[in-house]
């Protein structure tokens, strides 16, 4: 059973603060919210995720830039433009979405699902299940830009 304790605060500002707090939460447009799809994530944010991942793999900056150009082509941004702290990245993008970006990038480079799985585990200390990475890799190779669920038939007749 769930018990909720109500605390009365004699301040007149408290109701205003509550309203402001809940309004901010309901209108926040953070890139990592549940509604965000991979195809909606800005290319610069995707590149920042990849840069952080490759940096943790101890890849040299020149090599990172070359690999970004190979995958992103004309949309590649300068490393200085997309650089940002890992903390800031975690504010803007859900960790699961970050994993999707890395899986999409490594698949585009030609890495197989098993290799992607091992690299994610080596860098982050954990990984999605191999079966999920295999499914997403297949979908990315088929040209999908996002790996969310496909629309389902909702006829209930």
From TrEMBL:
Domain of life: Eukaryota
Name of the featured protein: Mos1 transposase HTH domain-containing protein
